[in-house]
Automatic annotation (TrEMBL):
<feature type="binding site">
    <location>
        <begin position="93"/>
        <end position="97"/>
    </location>
    <ligand>
        <name>GTP</name>
    </ligand>
</feature>
<dbReference type="Pfam" id="PF22042">
    <property type="entry name" value="EF-G_D2"/>
</dbReference>
<comment type="similarity">
    <text>Belongs to the TRAFAC class translation factor GTPase superfamily. Classic translation factor GTPase family. PrfC subfamily.</text>
</comment>
<dbReference type="InterPro" id="IPR038467">
    <property type="entry name" value="RF3_dom_3_sf"/>
</dbReference>
<dbReference type="InterPro" id="IPR009000">
    <property type="entry name" value="Transl_B-barrel_sf"/>
</dbReference>
<comment type="function">
    <text>Increases the formation of ribosomal termination complexes and stimulates activities of RF-1 and RF-2. It binds guanine nucleotides and has strong preference for UGA stop codons. It may interact directly with the ribosome. The stimulation of RF-1 and RF-2 is significantly reduced by GTP and GDP, but not by GMP.</text>
</comment>
<dbReference type="InterPro" id="IPR027417">
    <property type="entry name" value="P-loop_NTPase"/>
</dbReference>
<dbReference type="InterPro" id="IPR005225">
    <property type="entry name" value="Small_GTP-bd"/>
</dbReference>
<feature type="binding site">
    <location>
        <begin position="25"/>
        <end position="32"/>
    </location>
    <ligand>
        <name>GTP</name>
    </ligand>
</feature>
<dbReference type="Pfam" id="PF00009">
    <property type="entry name" value="GTP_EFTU"/>
</dbReference>
<dbReference type="Pfam" id="PF16658">
    <property type="entry name" value="RF3_C"/>
</dbReference>
<dbReference type="InterPro" id="IPR004548">
    <property type="entry name" value="PrfC"/>
</dbReference>
<feature type="binding site">
    <location>
        <begin position="147"/>
        <end position="150"/>
    </location>
    <ligand>
        <name>GTP</name>
    </ligand>
</feature>
<dbReference type="InterPro" id="IPR035647">
    <property type="entry name" value="EFG_III/V"/>
</dbReference>
<protein>
    <recommendedName>
        <fullName>Peptide chain release factor 3</fullName>
    </recommendedName>
</protein>
<dbReference type="InterPro" id="IPR041732">
    <property type="entry name" value="RF3_GTP-bd"/>
</dbReference>
<keyword id="KW-0342">GTP-binding</keyword>
Amino acid sequence: MLDRTSNRPKLPPEIARRRTFAIISHPDAGKTTLTEKFLLYGGAIQMAGQVRAKGEARRTRSDFMQMEKDRGISVSASAMSFDFKDFRFNLVDTPGHSDFSEDTYRTLTAVDAAVMVIDGAKGVESQTQKLFEVCRLRDLPILTFCNKMDRESRDTFEIIDEIQENLAIDVTPASWPIGRGRDFIGCYDILRDRLDLMDRADRNKVAESIAIEGLDDPKLAEHVPADLLKVFLEEIEMARELLPPLDQQALLDGTLTPIWFGSAINSFGVKELMEGIGQFGPEPQPQSAEPRAVAPEETKVAGFVFKVQANMDPKHRDRVAFVRLASGHFKRGMKLTHVRSKKPMAISNPVLFLASDRELAEEAWAGDIIGIPNHGQLRIGDTLTEGEAIRVTGIPSFAPELLQGVRAGDPMKSKHLEKALMQFAEEGAAKVFKPAIGSGFIVGVVGQLQFEVLASRIELEYGLPVRFDASQFTSARWVSGEKDAVEKFTNANKQHISHDHDGDIVYLTRLQWDIDRIERDYPDVKLTATKEMM
Ligand code: GDP
Protein backbone atom coordinates (compact mmCIF):
# COMPACT_ATOMS: atom_id res chain seq x y z
CA MET A 1 0.00 0.00 0.00
CA LEU A 2 1.39 3.35 -0.99
CA ASP A 3 1.78 6.08 1.53
CA ARG A 4 -1.04 8.46 0.69
CA THR A 5 -1.00 10.34 3.95
CA SER A 6 -1.43 14.05 4.16
CA ASN A 7 1.88 14.36 6.01
CA ARG A 8 4.16 13.21 3.23
CA PRO A 9 7.27 15.32 2.64
CA LYS A 10 6.60 18.80 1.38
CA LEU A 11 6.74 18.86 -2.40
CA PRO A 12 8.50 21.50 -4.49
CA PRO A 13 5.86 24.17 -5.24
CA GLU A 14 5.69 23.36 -8.95
CA ILE A 15 4.78 19.77 -8.13
CA ALA A 16 2.58 20.57 -5.16
CA ARG A 17 0.30 22.73 -7.34
CA ARG A 18 -0.46 19.92 -9.76
CA ARG A 19 -3.74 18.04 -9.69
CA THR A 20 -3.96 15.10 -12.00
CA PHE A 21 -7.37 13.51 -12.22
CA ALA A 22 -9.96 11.83 -14.39
CA ILE A 23 -13.71 12.23 -14.63
CA ILE A 24 -15.82 9.12 -14.32
CA SER A 25 -19.51 9.05 -15.12
CA HIS A 26 -22.34 7.22 -16.79
CA PRO A 27 -22.93 8.43 -20.37
CA ASP A 28 -25.08 11.55 -20.46
CA ALA A 29 -24.46 12.57 -16.86
CA GLY A 30 -22.60 15.64 -18.10
CA LYS A 31 -18.92 14.77 -18.31
CA THR A 32 -18.37 16.66 -21.56
CA THR A 33 -20.24 19.71 -20.36
CA LEU A 34 -18.31 19.73 -17.10
CA THR A 35 -15.02 19.37 -18.97
CA GLU A 36 -15.96 22.36 -21.13
CA LYS A 37 -16.62 24.45 -18.07
CA PHE A 38 -13.36 23.35 -16.47
CA LEU A 39 -11.54 24.54 -19.55
CA LEU A 40 -13.53 27.73 -19.60
CA TYR A 41 -12.53 28.58 -16.02
CA GLY A 42 -9.07 27.29 -16.72
CA GLY A 43 -8.86 30.12 -19.24
CA ALA A 44 -8.03 27.51 -21.84
CA ILE A 45 -10.92 28.42 -24.10
CA GLN A 46 -12.83 31.61 -24.54
CA MET A 47 -16.32 30.23 -24.80
CA ALA A 48 -17.77 27.00 -23.60
CA GLY A 49 -18.80 24.82 -26.50
CA GLN A 50 -15.39 24.60 -28.04
CA VAL A 51 -14.54 21.17 -26.72
CA ARG A 52 -17.51 19.82 -28.49
CA ALA A 53 -16.88 21.85 -31.63
CA LYS A 54 -13.27 20.83 -31.63
CA GLY A 55 -14.22 17.26 -30.86
CA GLU A 56 -16.60 17.19 -33.76
CA ALA A 57 -14.08 18.61 -36.19
CA ARG A 58 -11.70 15.89 -35.13
CA ARG A 59 -14.33 13.22 -35.29
CA THR A 60 -15.44 13.93 -38.82
CA ARG A 61 -11.98 12.76 -39.79
CA SER A 62 -13.09 9.19 -39.91
CA ASP A 63 -16.14 7.06 -39.75
CA PHE A 64 -14.76 5.32 -36.75
CA MET A 65 -15.04 8.55 -34.92
CA GLN A 66 -18.45 8.99 -36.46
CA MET A 67 -19.45 5.67 -35.02
CA GLU A 68 -18.20 6.77 -31.68
CA LYS A 69 -20.30 9.88 -31.94
CA ASP A 70 -23.43 8.04 -33.05
CA ARG A 71 -23.21 5.74 -30.14
CA GLY A 72 -22.51 8.60 -27.82
CA ILE A 73 -19.35 7.06 -26.52
CA SER A 74 -15.87 8.31 -26.31
CA VAL A 75 -13.24 5.71 -26.96
CA SER A 76 -10.15 7.77 -27.48
CA ALA A 77 -8.63 8.94 -24.26
CA SER A 78 -6.63 12.10 -24.17
CA ALA A 79 -5.15 14.45 -21.66
CA MET A 80 -5.74 18.13 -21.13
CA SER A 81 -3.73 20.57 -19.07
CA PHE A 82 -4.90 23.96 -17.85
CA ASP A 83 -4.33 26.37 -15.01
CA PHE A 84 -6.88 27.31 -12.42
CA LYS A 85 -5.93 29.86 -9.76
CA ASP A 86 -2.65 28.59 -8.33
CA PHE A 87 -3.14 25.10 -9.66
CA ARG A 88 -2.16 23.24 -12.76
CA PHE A 89 -4.87 20.73 -13.60
CA ASN A 90 -4.13 17.69 -15.73
CA LEU A 91 -7.38 16.12 -16.75
CA VAL A 92 -7.11 12.67 -18.24
CA ASP A 93 -10.10 11.58 -20.28
CA THR A 94 -11.41 8.09 -19.64
CA PRO A 95 -13.31 6.12 -22.23
CA GLY A 96 -16.88 6.05 -21.06
CA HIS A 97 -18.05 2.75 -22.41
CA SER A 98 -17.86 -0.41 -20.35
CA ASP A 99 -16.36 -2.34 -23.26
CA PHE A 100 -13.22 -0.35 -22.78
CA SER A 101 -12.77 -1.04 -19.13
CA GLU A 102 -9.19 -2.24 -19.43
CA ASP A 103 -8.24 1.00 -21.10
CA THR A 104 -10.03 2.85 -18.35
CA TYR A 105 -8.22 0.89 -15.72
CA ARG A 106 -4.88 1.81 -17.21
CA THR A 107 -5.87 5.42 -17.57
CA LEU A 108 -6.73 5.49 -13.91
CA THR A 109 -3.21 4.34 -13.04
CA ALA A 110 -2.05 7.72 -14.31
CA VAL A 111 -4.18 9.90 -12.05
CA ASP A 112 -4.19 10.80 -8.38
CA ALA A 113 -7.93 11.28 -8.02
CA ALA A 114 -11.21 10.95 -9.86
CA VAL A 115 -14.18 13.27 -10.13
CA MET A 116 -17.37 11.25 -10.22
CA VAL A 117 -20.23 12.97 -12.01
CA ILE A 118 -23.74 11.77 -11.35
CA ASP A 119 -27.05 12.96 -12.68
CA GLY A 120 -29.16 14.36 -9.85
CA ALA A 121 -32.29 12.70 -11.23
CA LYS A 122 -30.70 9.32 -11.84
CA GLY A 123 -28.23 8.83 -9.04
CA VAL A 124 -25.66 6.04 -9.25
CA GLU A 125 -26.01 4.38 -12.67
CA SER A 126 -24.47 1.14 -13.91
CA GLN A 127 -21.43 2.69 -15.52
CA THR A 128 -20.77 4.93 -12.54
CA GLN A 129 -20.75 1.85 -10.38
CA LYS A 130 -18.33 -0.04 -12.64
CA LEU A 131 -15.92 2.83 -12.96
CA PHE A 132 -16.11 3.49 -9.27
CA GLU A 133 -15.10 -0.09 -8.61
CA VAL A 134 -12.07 0.35 -10.81
CA CYS A 135 -11.12 3.40 -8.75
CA ARG A 136 -11.62 1.40 -5.60
CA LEU A 137 -9.15 -1.23 -6.78
CA ARG A 138 -6.59 1.54 -6.67
CA ASP A 139 -8.00 3.28 -3.56
CA LEU A 140 -8.26 6.46 -5.58
CA PRO A 141 -9.63 9.51 -3.81
CA ILE A 142 -13.00 10.52 -5.28
CA LEU A 143 -14.68 13.91 -5.43
CA THR A 144 -18.33 13.86 -6.45
CA PHE A 145 -20.31 16.32 -8.54
CA CYS A 146 -24.07 15.89 -8.59
CA ASN A 147 -25.12 17.48 -11.85
CA LYS A 148 -28.34 18.73 -13.46
CA MET A 149 -29.71 20.23 -10.27
CA ASP A 150 -31.53 22.80 -12.44
CA ARG A 151 -33.89 19.99 -13.37
CA GLU A 152 -36.19 17.85 -11.31
CA SER A 153 -33.82 15.90 -9.10
CA ARG A 154 -34.05 13.38 -6.35
CA ASP A 155 -34.16 14.23 -2.71
CA THR A 156 -30.69 15.24 -1.53
CA PHE A 157 -30.55 12.69 1.27
CA GLU A 158 -31.72 10.00 -1.10
CA ILE A 159 -28.86 10.76 -3.51
CA ILE A 160 -26.32 10.72 -0.71
CA ASP A 161 -27.76 7.49 0.71
CA GLU A 162 -27.61 5.83 -2.63
CA ILE A 163 -23.93 6.68 -3.03
CA GLN A 164 -23.17 5.47 0.48
CA GLU A 165 -25.10 2.24 0.02
CA ASN A 166 -24.23 1.29 -3.53
CA LEU A 167 -20.63 2.36 -3.51
CA ALA A 168 -19.83 1.72 0.14
CA ILE A 169 -18.17 5.08 0.64
CA ASP A 170 -18.94 7.79 3.17
CA VAL A 171 -20.30 11.03 1.74
CA THR A 172 -19.85 14.49 3.14
CA PRO A 173 -21.70 17.43 1.61
CA ALA A 174 -19.43 20.25 0.46
CA SER A 175 -22.48 22.20 -0.62
CA TRP A 176 -26.21 21.83 -0.10
CA PRO A 177 -28.88 22.53 -2.73
CA ILE A 178 -31.65 24.97 -1.95
CA GLY A 179 -34.97 24.25 -3.64
CA ARG A 180 -35.46 21.52 -6.20
CA GLY A 181 -36.24 21.36 -9.89
CA ARG A 182 -37.82 24.58 -11.06
CA ASP A 183 -37.43 26.02 -7.56
CA PHE A 184 -33.72 25.32 -7.36
CA ILE A 185 -32.09 28.65 -6.66
CA GLY A 186 -28.55 27.63 -5.78
CA CYS A 187 -26.45 26.07 -3.04
CA TYR A 188 -25.15 26.81 0.36
CA ASP A 189 -21.38 26.38 0.33
CA ILE A 190 -20.84 24.46 3.55
CA LEU A 191 -17.06 24.59 3.42
CA ARG A 192 -16.87 28.35 3.15
CA ASP A 193 -20.20 29.58 4.46
CA ARG A 194 -21.36 31.27 1.32
CA LEU A 195 -24.61 31.38 -0.54
CA ASP A 196 -24.18 30.74 -4.27
CA LEU A 197 -27.11 31.73 -6.43
CA MET A 198 -27.62 30.34 -9.89
CA ASP A 199 -28.40 32.62 -12.80
CA ARG A 200 -30.80 30.79 -15.10
CA ALA A 201 -30.73 33.58 -17.66
CA ASP A 202 -27.04 33.39 -18.48
CA ARG A 203 -25.52 29.95 -18.67
CA ASN A 204 -21.97 31.16 -18.84
CA LYS A 205 -22.25 33.50 -15.93
CA VAL A 206 -20.56 32.51 -12.71
CA ALA A 207 -22.92 32.35 -9.79
CA GLU A 208 -23.43 35.28 -7.53
CA SER A 209 -21.77 34.38 -4.26
CA ILE A 210 -22.71 35.98 -0.96
CA ALA A 211 -20.71 35.59 2.23
CA ILE A 212 -22.90 34.34 5.07
CA GLU A 213 -22.03 34.38 8.72
CA GLY A 214 -23.51 31.14 9.89
CA LEU A 215 -26.95 29.73 9.35
CA ASP A 216 -28.71 32.31 11.51
CA ASP A 217 -27.38 35.19 9.42
CA PRO A 218 -30.42 37.33 8.41
CA LYS A 219 -28.80 37.75 4.99
CA LEU A 220 -30.03 34.26 4.11
CA ALA A 221 -33.64 35.38 4.34
CA GLU A 222 -32.91 38.33 2.07
CA HIS A 223 -31.95 35.99 -0.76
CA VAL A 224 -33.86 32.80 -0.10
CA PRO A 225 -37.68 32.64 -0.21
CA ALA A 226 -39.09 31.76 3.21
CA ASP A 227 -40.50 28.34 2.29
CA LEU A 228 -37.24 27.20 0.72
CA LEU A 229 -35.22 28.58 3.60
CA LYS A 230 -37.27 26.63 6.11
CA VAL A 231 -36.72 23.35 4.29
CA PHE A 232 -33.06 24.12 3.76
CA LEU A 233 -32.43 24.88 7.43
CA GLU A 234 -34.13 21.64 8.45
CA GLU A 235 -32.15 19.64 5.95
CA ILE A 236 -28.80 21.16 6.76
CA GLU A 237 -29.33 20.53 10.45
CA MET A 238 -30.15 16.92 9.75
CA ALA A 239 -27.16 16.63 7.43
CA ARG A 240 -24.85 17.92 10.14
CA GLU A 241 -26.19 15.31 12.52
CA LEU A 242 -26.18 12.38 10.13
CA LEU A 243 -23.27 12.89 7.80
CA PRO A 244 -19.56 12.93 8.59
CA PRO A 245 -17.51 16.12 8.29
CA LEU A 246 -14.83 16.44 5.65
CA ASP A 247 -11.75 14.52 6.73
CA GLN A 248 -8.74 14.95 4.47
CA GLN A 249 -7.20 11.62 5.36
CA ALA A 250 -10.42 9.69 4.72
CA LEU A 251 -10.67 11.43 1.35
CA LEU A 252 -7.09 10.46 0.51
CA ASP A 253 -7.78 6.87 1.58
CA GLY A 254 -10.75 6.76 -0.75
CA THR A 255 -13.21 6.03 2.06
CA LEU A 256 -14.98 9.40 2.03
CA THR A 257 -16.13 11.53 -0.88
CA PRO A 258 -17.15 15.18 -0.67
CA ILE A 259 -20.15 16.00 -2.87
CA TRP A 260 -20.89 19.29 -4.64
CA PHE A 261 -24.28 19.97 -6.17
CA GLY A 262 -24.56 22.00 -9.33
CA SER A 263 -25.48 22.35 -12.93
CA ALA A 264 -22.63 22.12 -15.39
CA ILE A 265 -24.64 23.57 -18.24
CA ASN A 266 -25.46 26.61 -16.15
CA SER A 267 -21.85 26.92 -15.02
CA PHE A 268 -23.16 26.43 -11.54
CA GLY A 269 -21.14 24.77 -8.81
CA VAL A 270 -18.26 24.10 -11.17
CA LYS A 271 -15.87 26.68 -9.76
CA GLU A 272 -16.56 25.45 -6.26
CA LEU A 273 -15.76 21.92 -7.39
CA MET A 274 -12.53 23.13 -8.99
CA GLU A 275 -11.59 24.94 -5.82
CA GLY A 276 -12.32 21.72 -3.96
CA ILE A 277 -10.06 19.76 -6.29
CA GLY A 278 -7.35 22.32 -5.64
CA GLN A 279 -7.81 22.39 -1.90
CA PHE A 280 -8.50 18.72 -1.17
CA GLY A 281 -7.68 16.83 -4.34
CA PRO A 282 -4.36 15.17 -3.74
CA GLU A 283 -0.99 16.42 -4.85
CA PRO A 284 0.97 14.07 -7.09
CA GLN A 285 1.25 10.80 -5.21
CA PRO A 286 3.98 8.14 -5.06
CA GLN A 287 3.93 5.49 -7.75
CA SER A 288 4.31 1.81 -7.02
CA ALA A 289 7.28 0.30 -8.79
CA GLU A 290 9.89 -2.45 -8.57
CA PRO A 291 12.29 -2.66 -6.84
CA ARG A 292 11.14 0.49 -5.04
CA ALA A 293 8.31 3.01 -5.18
CA VAL A 294 8.93 6.36 -6.88
CA ALA A 295 8.16 9.53 -4.92
CA PRO A 296 7.18 12.70 -6.79
CA GLU A 297 9.72 14.85 -4.93
CA GLU A 298 12.68 12.83 -6.19
CA THR A 299 14.87 15.09 -8.30
CA LYS A 300 15.47 12.52 -11.01
CA VAL A 301 12.86 12.08 -13.67
CA ALA A 302 10.84 8.88 -13.92
CA GLY A 303 7.69 8.31 -15.92
CA PHE A 304 5.60 5.52 -17.31
CA VAL A 305 3.50 4.87 -20.38
CA PHE A 306 -0.16 4.28 -19.57
CA LYS A 307 -1.58 4.67 -23.03
CA VAL A 308 -0.43 4.45 -26.59
CA GLN A 309 -2.46 5.99 -29.32
CA ALA A 310 -1.59 5.06 -32.85
CA ASN A 311 -2.61 6.85 -36.00
CA MET A 312 -3.79 10.01 -34.31
CA ASP A 313 -3.19 11.43 -37.71
CA PRO A 314 -4.00 8.68 -40.23
CA LYS A 315 -1.84 10.37 -42.87
CA HIS A 316 1.26 9.89 -40.79
CA ARG A 317 1.68 6.62 -39.03
CA ASP A 318 2.55 8.44 -35.86
CA ARG A 319 2.12 7.04 -32.43
CA VAL A 320 1.95 8.92 -29.25
CA ALA A 321 2.82 7.33 -25.96
CA PHE A 322 1.10 9.06 -23.07
CA VAL A 323 3.53 9.28 -20.18
CA ARG A 324 2.68 10.16 -16.63
CA LEU A 325 5.66 11.74 -14.94
CA ALA A 326 6.08 10.12 -11.56
CA SER A 327 8.99 12.23 -10.32
CA GLY A 328 11.32 15.07 -11.03
CA HIS A 329 11.52 18.00 -13.41
CA PHE A 330 11.58 17.04 -17.05
CA LYS A 331 13.13 19.26 -19.68
CA ARG A 332 12.78 18.91 -23.42
CA GLY A 333 15.71 17.17 -25.06
CA MET A 334 16.49 15.09 -21.98
CA LYS A 335 17.98 11.66 -22.55
CA LEU A 336 16.03 9.08 -20.63
CA THR A 337 16.62 5.38 -20.30
CA HIS A 338 13.98 3.12 -21.74
CA VAL A 339 14.14 0.56 -18.95
CA ARG A 340 12.72 -2.43 -20.85
CA SER A 341 15.31 -2.24 -23.64
CA LYS A 342 17.96 -0.49 -21.48
CA LYS A 343 18.43 1.92 -24.40
CA PRO A 344 18.74 5.69 -24.11
CA MET A 345 16.03 7.76 -25.73
CA ALA A 346 16.36 11.45 -26.46
CA ILE A 347 12.98 13.00 -25.81
CA SER A 348 13.15 15.85 -28.27
CA ASN A 349 9.52 16.36 -29.27
CA PRO A 350 7.44 15.82 -26.16
CA VAL A 351 3.93 17.17 -26.44
CA LEU A 352 1.76 18.85 -23.89
CA PHE A 353 -1.96 18.59 -24.47
CA LEU A 354 -3.36 21.99 -23.83
CA ALA A 355 -7.08 22.33 -24.01
CA SER A 356 -7.29 23.28 -27.62
CA ASP A 357 -3.99 22.21 -29.03
CA ARG A 358 -0.91 20.14 -28.78
CA GLU A 359 2.16 22.10 -27.93
CA LEU A 360 5.83 21.25 -27.53
CA ALA A 361 6.51 20.63 -23.87
CA GLU A 362 9.60 22.60 -22.94
CA GLU A 363 9.34 21.28 -19.43
CA ALA A 364 7.07 19.21 -17.24
CA TRP A 365 6.90 18.14 -13.61
CA ALA A 366 5.88 15.12 -11.63
CA GLY A 367 2.13 14.77 -12.04
CA ASP A 368 2.08 16.00 -15.64
CA ILE A 369 1.09 13.96 -18.65
CA ILE A 370 3.25 14.34 -21.73
CA GLY A 371 2.92 12.73 -25.11
CA ILE A 372 6.00 11.22 -26.71
CA PRO A 373 5.77 10.61 -30.44
CA ASN A 374 7.63 7.43 -31.39
CA HIS A 375 7.73 4.62 -33.89
CA GLY A 376 6.67 1.81 -31.66
CA GLN A 377 9.49 1.63 -29.13
CA LEU A 378 7.22 2.78 -26.33
CA ARG A 379 4.63 0.35 -25.08
CA ILE A 380 2.07 0.43 -22.35
CA GLY A 381 3.70 -0.23 -19.01
CA ASP A 382 7.15 0.96 -20.11
CA THR A 383 9.15 3.02 -17.65
CA LEU A 384 11.52 5.87 -18.51
CA THR A 385 14.12 6.95 -15.97
CA GLU A 386 17.41 8.83 -15.78
CA GLY A 387 19.20 5.49 -15.69
CA GLU A 388 17.93 3.54 -12.71
CA ALA A 389 16.34 0.19 -13.54
CA ILE A 390 12.94 0.87 -12.03
CA ARG A 391 9.82 -0.69 -13.39
CA VAL A 392 6.45 0.80 -12.61
CA THR A 393 3.98 -1.85 -11.49
CA GLY A 394 0.25 -2.14 -11.36
CA ILE A 395 -0.57 -1.76 -15.04
CA PRO A 396 -2.18 -5.06 -15.80
CA SER A 397 -3.40 -6.62 -18.95
CA PHE A 398 -6.59 -8.59 -18.50
CA ALA A 399 -7.47 -11.84 -20.19
CA PRO A 400 -10.04 -11.09 -22.89
CA GLU A 401 -13.55 -12.34 -22.38
CA LEU A 402 -14.51 -12.65 -26.04
CA LEU A 403 -12.42 -14.32 -28.71
CA GLN A 404 -12.87 -14.31 -32.47
CA GLY A 405 -10.85 -15.41 -35.44
CA VAL A 406 -9.95 -12.69 -37.90
CA ARG A 407 -9.15 -12.88 -41.60
CA ALA A 408 -8.33 -10.33 -44.24
CA GLY A 409 -11.13 -9.97 -46.80
CA ASP A 410 -8.38 -10.31 -49.39
CA PRO A 411 -6.17 -13.33 -48.59
CA MET A 412 -3.23 -11.63 -50.33
CA LYS A 413 -3.27 -9.02 -47.60
CA SER A 414 -2.62 -11.28 -44.60
CA LYS A 415 0.80 -9.74 -43.94
CA HIS A 416 -0.78 -6.30 -43.83
CA LEU A 417 -3.37 -7.59 -41.48
CA GLU A 418 -0.71 -8.97 -39.18
CA LYS A 419 0.96 -5.58 -39.04
CA ALA A 420 -2.29 -3.80 -38.30
CA LEU A 421 -3.21 -6.29 -35.59
CA MET A 422 0.17 -5.97 -33.90
CA GLN A 423 -0.23 -2.23 -33.92
CA PHE A 424 -3.57 -2.44 -32.16
CA ALA A 425 -2.27 -5.03 -29.73
CA GLU A 426 0.56 -2.71 -28.74
CA GLU A 427 -1.86 0.12 -28.40
CA GLY A 428 -3.80 -2.09 -26.00
CA ALA A 429 -6.94 -1.95 -28.15
CA ALA A 430 -7.19 -5.74 -28.32
CA LYS A 431 -5.28 -8.91 -27.55
CA VAL A 432 -3.92 -10.68 -30.59
CA PHE A 433 -2.97 -14.34 -30.43
CA LYS A 434 -1.11 -16.30 -33.07
CA PRO A 435 -2.01 -19.98 -32.74
CA ALA A 436 0.92 -22.40 -32.70
CA ILE A 437 -0.87 -24.55 -35.25
CA GLY A 438 -2.46 -23.23 -38.40
CA SER A 439 -2.60 -19.75 -39.83
CA GLY A 440 -4.62 -16.69 -39.00
CA PHE A 441 -5.08 -14.82 -35.78
CA ILE A 442 -7.39 -14.83 -32.85
CA VAL A 443 -8.40 -11.50 -31.45
CA GLY A 444 -9.54 -11.12 -27.88
CA VAL A 445 -11.48 -8.23 -26.38
CA VAL A 446 -13.46 -7.42 -23.30
CA GLY A 447 -16.65 -6.24 -25.00
CA GLN A 448 -18.36 -6.95 -28.31
CA LEU A 449 -18.22 -3.33 -29.40
CA GLN A 450 -14.45 -3.51 -29.55
CA PHE A 451 -14.65 -5.94 -32.47
CA GLU A 452 -16.67 -3.41 -34.42
CA VAL A 453 -14.34 -0.57 -33.56
CA LEU A 454 -11.37 -2.70 -34.49
CA ALA A 455 -12.85 -3.77 -37.82
CA SER A 456 -13.66 -0.22 -38.74
CA ARG A 457 -10.25 1.07 -37.67
CA ILE A 458 -8.41 -1.63 -39.64
CA GLU A 459 -10.41 -0.71 -42.68
CA LEU A 460 -9.99 3.04 -42.27
CA GLU A 461 -6.43 3.20 -41.11
CA TYR A 462 -5.00 0.35 -43.17
CA GLY A 463 -7.49 0.09 -46.03
CA LEU A 464 -8.12 -3.56 -45.17
CA PRO A 465 -11.60 -5.00 -45.02
CA VAL A 466 -11.61 -7.77 -42.42
CA ARG A 467 -13.95 -10.49 -41.31
CA PHE A 468 -14.35 -11.77 -37.81
CA ASP A 469 -15.67 -15.25 -37.31
CA ALA A 470 -16.50 -17.42 -34.36
CA SER A 471 -13.56 -18.97 -32.59
CA GLN A 472 -13.63 -22.37 -30.98
CA PHE A 473 -12.12 -20.78 -27.89
CA THR A 474 -13.70 -18.65 -25.24
CA SER A 475 -10.97 -18.11 -22.65
CA ALA A 476 -7.31 -17.21 -22.63
CA ARG A 477 -4.72 -17.67 -19.90
CA TRP A 478 -1.10 -16.66 -19.80
CA VAL A 479 1.24 -19.55 -19.16
CA SER A 480 4.24 -19.27 -16.86
CA GLY A 481 6.58 -21.54 -14.93
CA GLU A 482 9.94 -23.28 -15.21
CA LYS A 483 11.11 -23.61 -18.79
CA ASP A 484 11.01 -27.43 -18.86
CA ALA A 485 7.60 -27.68 -17.29
CA VAL A 486 6.20 -25.10 -19.69
CA GLU A 487 7.74 -26.87 -22.67
CA LYS A 488 6.32 -30.21 -21.65
CA PHE A 489 2.95 -28.59 -21.18
CA THR A 490 2.91 -26.76 -24.50
CA ASN A 491 4.07 -29.80 -26.45
CA ALA A 492 1.25 -31.87 -25.04
CA ASN A 493 -1.37 -29.18 -25.70
CA LYS A 494 -0.25 -27.74 -29.04
CA GLN A 495 -3.75 -27.23 -30.40
CA HIS A 496 -4.51 -24.88 -27.48
CA ILE A 497 -1.30 -22.91 -27.56
CA SER A 498 -0.75 -19.48 -29.05
CA HIS A 499 1.51 -16.47 -28.56
CA ASP A 500 0.49 -12.93 -27.80
CA HIS A 501 2.10 -9.90 -29.45
CA ASP A 502 4.91 -9.90 -26.88
CA GLY A 503 5.65 -13.52 -27.71
CA ASP A 504 4.33 -14.74 -24.36
CA ILE A 505 2.67 -18.11 -24.30
CA VAL A 506 -1.11 -18.18 -24.02
CA TYR A 507 -3.37 -21.16 -23.45
CA LEU A 508 -6.72 -20.94 -25.24
CA THR A 509 -9.69 -23.03 -24.31
CA ARG A 510 -13.45 -23.12 -24.19
CA LEU A 511 -13.81 -24.96 -20.91
CA GLN A 512 -13.18 -23.87 -17.38
CA TRP A 513 -12.84 -27.62 -16.82
CA ASP A 514 -9.67 -27.60 -18.96
CA ILE A 515 -8.15 -24.89 -16.83
CA ASP A 516 -8.94 -26.80 -13.64
CA ARG A 517 -7.53 -29.98 -15.13
CA ILE A 518 -4.27 -28.31 -16.06
CA GLU A 519 -3.89 -26.86 -12.62
CA ARG A 520 -4.21 -30.44 -11.35
CA ASP A 521 -2.10 -32.22 -13.97
CA TYR A 522 0.63 -29.61 -14.31
CA PRO A 523 1.26 -28.24 -10.83
CA ASP A 524 4.47 -26.54 -12.04
CA VAL A 525 2.68 -24.55 -14.71
CA LYS A 526 0.79 -21.43 -13.78
CA LEU A 527 -2.20 -20.12 -15.75
CA THR A 528 -3.13 -16.52 -15.06
CA ALA A 529 -5.91 -14.25 -16.23
CA THR A 530 -3.83 -11.08 -15.91
CA LYS A 531 -0.38 -10.16 -16.98
CA GLU A 532 1.63 -7.17 -15.86
CA MET A 533 2.51 -5.04 -18.85
CA MET A 534 6.24 -4.61 -19.04
P1 GDP B 1 -21.62 13.06 -21.16
O1 GDP B 1 -22.22 12.01 -22.01
O2 GDP B 1 -21.49 12.63 -19.74
O3 GDP B 1 -20.36 13.67 -21.69
O4 GDP B 1 -22.72 14.23 -21.07
P2 GDP B 1 -22.85 15.62 -21.81
O5 GDP B 1 -21.98 16.64 -21.17
O6 GDP B 1 -22.73 15.43 -23.28
O7 GDP B 1 -24.34 15.98 -21.39
C1 GDP B 1 -25.43 15.17 -21.72
C2 GDP B 1 -26.66 16.03 -21.91
O8 GDP B 1 -27.03 16.62 -20.68
C3 GDP B 1 -26.44 17.16 -22.89
O9 GDP B 1 -27.62 17.33 -23.63
C4 GDP B 1 -26.19 18.36 -21.99
O10 GDP B 1 -26.56 19.55 -22.59
C5 GDP B 1 -27.07 18.03 -20.81
N1 GDP B 1 -26.58 18.65 -19.56
C6 GDP B 1 -25.32 18.69 -19.10
N2 GDP B 1 -25.26 19.33 -17.92
C7 GDP B 1 -26.52 19.72 -17.64
C8 GDP B 1 -27.13 20.43 -16.55
O11 GDP B 1 -26.49 20.87 -15.61
N3 GDP B 1 -28.47 20.60 -16.62
C9 GDP B 1 -29.23 20.15 -17.66
N4 GDP B 1 -30.53 20.37 -17.61
N5 GDP B 1 -28.69 19.47 -18.68
C10 GDP B 1 -27.36 19.27 -18.68
